[in-house]
Structure formats: structure tokens, C-alpha cells
TrEMBL record:
Record protein name field: DUF6723 family protein
Superkingdom of source: Bacteria
Native source species: Paraburkholderia sabiae
Length: 90
């Protein structure tokens, strides 16, 4: 059995009900002149599980501006939350 380190103390709810049941951390990473990548960490607070990034996750970018990279990471987080609310993975 693999034990996972929790990034967030579980709320104790049996399953996520709204977007408030997630914590989203968004930042950016500068790679080279005019190239920025969005950085995203997504944690489901009901069980403390980190949903993103996962092994093999594609990078978010590159983008020409920090704002574009941050917006893309935020949008990606929203899509992942929507998908997890419809079908929470165990």
C-alpha cells in the first residue's frame, strides 16, 4: 500500500460538492525570452488529495506573457474541478 503525503487537512466530507471543496495554487515559470508556463497545483479538500500535477501531466504553455500563462493555468484548474465534481476519482 502506497501512503500519500497530504497537502491539505481533509475536511471530512464524503465527497466534493462545489468548487469550494478544492484549493487551487496558480503561479508562472519563466523559461526563456518571451516564454512563460503556467504552474498549477490542485488539491481536493474533502480528502486532502493532490489532483494536479500528476505524473505525465502536460505543461501549461508556453505563452508570451505572464498574464496569459496564469490565465491558462487558472482555466485548466477550473476544468479539472468541473470534471472531478462530475466524477470524483478515488
Amino acid at each position: 500500500m502506497v501512503r500519500r503525503k497530504l497537502l491539505f487537512e481533509p475536511s471530512g466530507k464524503p465527497r466534493p460538492e462545489t468548487a469550494d471543496d478544492y484549493v487551487v495554487y496558480v503561479t508562472t515559470r519563466f523559461v526563456s525570452a518571451g516564454r512563460f508556463f503556467g504552474e498549477l497545483a490542485l488539491v481536493r479538500t474533502t480528502d486532502g488529495r493532490k489532483l494536479y500535477p500528476f505524473e505525465g501531466a502536460s505543461p501549461i504553455g508556453p505563452f508570451l506573457t505572464v498574464d496569459d500563462a496564469r490565465a491558462a493555468a487558472t482555466a485548466h484548474g477550473s476544468l479539472l474541478i468541473e470534471a472531478d465534481l462530475k466524477n470524483p476519482e478515488a
